[in-house]
Specification:
The protein has 405 residues and is an alpha/beta fold. Helix content is 27%, strand content 23%.
């Protein structure tokens, strides 16, 4: 049993506890409060003068899929051979030994949704991973797949340069609709075959299995969420229009110009992952990015998560949240934007995103305000296990190294 005692405990959903205690056993939080009895045999982490939060969550990442260092040998994040590669799975490129992982854990991030990039209209499936474990199966939280889709410059540039469709935003939308219609037809054939088999009492004559259409079909049946990359306001609205047309469960990713249409996004109850907030004007569709975007959308009533959208630079996620606060986002909402909000968006809020009894013991102890650039994570727990501990020699990576010669 482990007890984190005396700290400023930000539960996220149940307020802030001064001098609070978080009691952990068997990888789970068993109690959170100011008057929690600590068993005599418990290991104690003294958090007096420190902040205690849930492990931070990045709802849109490419960590351990894009690969580091960024060279052709590790470039596994975009299957740039067809605008629709729905059949590919991020898990088949996931590298548990990616050198970026310990750097990100040391930044207080314990969970990310990771997967393919935005080169294709439909890029394949990603999944939620905890940043611990030696194998793919140890890292992935089952049942958390999402299907990557993308609009805007990236797919039209990638395929337009090859003189193939899509080369325009019209082409982007058309390719996406065609893929969704093809998957609808595939599902209808399966339904008809099963209905006829049930009526005749004979084995169903199913169409040949098609992994691409099967995956898109899961999105059509709302078994997995469509995660639609869109920066410009018109691309965001195109994404919403198509999602509504086909009844998709969706999230808008980046949502960079969301601040231009906050009332529309709020009225449609859009979920948005925003960021990276440190990006410069690297392409036309992000020239008008602003650090005010998260705050504007949150105040309008949009469920906002702040994303780092990268690999080892995910360690700077806390600083990006601090910038959002500096530029108008309410502090409480900023904490929610990297804890409970992303947990809800990626479908793991039943076990992550807040400090509550019964949830996974993913906890971070900070030596100051978590979003201050002077602050460091001192102790990081995932499932109640210390995966990072800052030591006095200041040479930590994945764990305390003072006892390692």
């Amino acid at each position: 049993m482990l007890a984190i005692t005396g700290g400023k405990v930000l539960t996220i959903t149940q307020g802030t506890l001064e001098g609070g205690t978080v009691l952990i056993d068997g990888g789970k939080i068993v109690a959170v409060g100011q008057n929690v009895a600590v068993p005599a045999d418990a290991e104690v982490i003294d958090a007096r003068g420190k902040w205690v939060t849930p492990g931070l969550i990045d709802a849109h990442s490419h960590l351990a899929v894009f690969g580091e260092p960024s060279i052709p040998a590790t470039a596994d994040g975009n299957e740039r051979t067809d605008p629709n590669t729905a059949q590919v799975r991020g898990r088949d490129a996931l590298n548990p030994q990616d050198p970026a992982i310990p750097k990100v854990v040391a930044g207080g991030v314990t969970t990310v949704f990771t997967g393919p990039g935005s080169a294709n209209i439909i890029g394949g499936t990603g999944m939620v991973i905890k940043l611990r474990g030696r194998t793919v199966d140890e890292m992935i939280i089952p049942g958390t797949e999402g299907l990557k889709m993308a609009l805007g410059e990236n797919p039209k540039r990638n395929y337009g340069e090859q003189r193939k469709m899509p080369a325009t935003r019209m082409g982007n939308a058309a390719v996406l609709r065609e893929a969704l219609v093809a998957a609808q037809t595939y599902l209808e054939k399966i339904d008809r075959a099963n209905a006829e088999a049930a009526k005749d009492g004979k084995p169903a004559k199913l169409p040949d299995r098609n992994l691409k259409l099967e995956t898109i079909g899961r999105a059509l049946k709302r078994e997995i969420k469509a995660r639609i990359h869109a920066h410009r306001a018109d691309d965001i609205l195109t994404a919403i229009s198509i999602a509504e047309e086909f009844g998709l469960d969706y999230v808008i990713e980046h949502c960079t110009y969301g601040y231009k249409i906050p009332d529309i996004l709020a009225a449609k109850k859009v979920q948005a992952t925003i960021g990276p907030l440190l990006m410069g004007p690297g392409k036309h569709e992000i020239w008008e990015t602003t650090l005010e975007n998260p705050g504007i959308l949150a105040r309008a009533g949009v469920k906002v998560a702040i994303q780092a959208d990268t690999s080892s630079a995910t360690k700077w996620l806390p600083l990006q949240v601090g910038l959002a606060i500096r530029h108008g986002m309410e502090e409480d909402e900023a904490f929610r934007a990297v804890t409970i909000n992303p947990a809800e968006i990626i479908g793991v809020a039943d076990r992550l995103g807040s400090l509550e009894a019964g949830k996974d013991a993913d906890v971070v102890v900070w030596n100051g305000h978590p979003f201050c650039n002077f602050t460091r994570a001192e102790t990081v727990l995932i499932d109640g296990v210390k995966v990072f501990e800052l030591c006095s020699c200041d040479c930590c990576r994945s764990s305390c190294c003072c006892d390692k010669e």
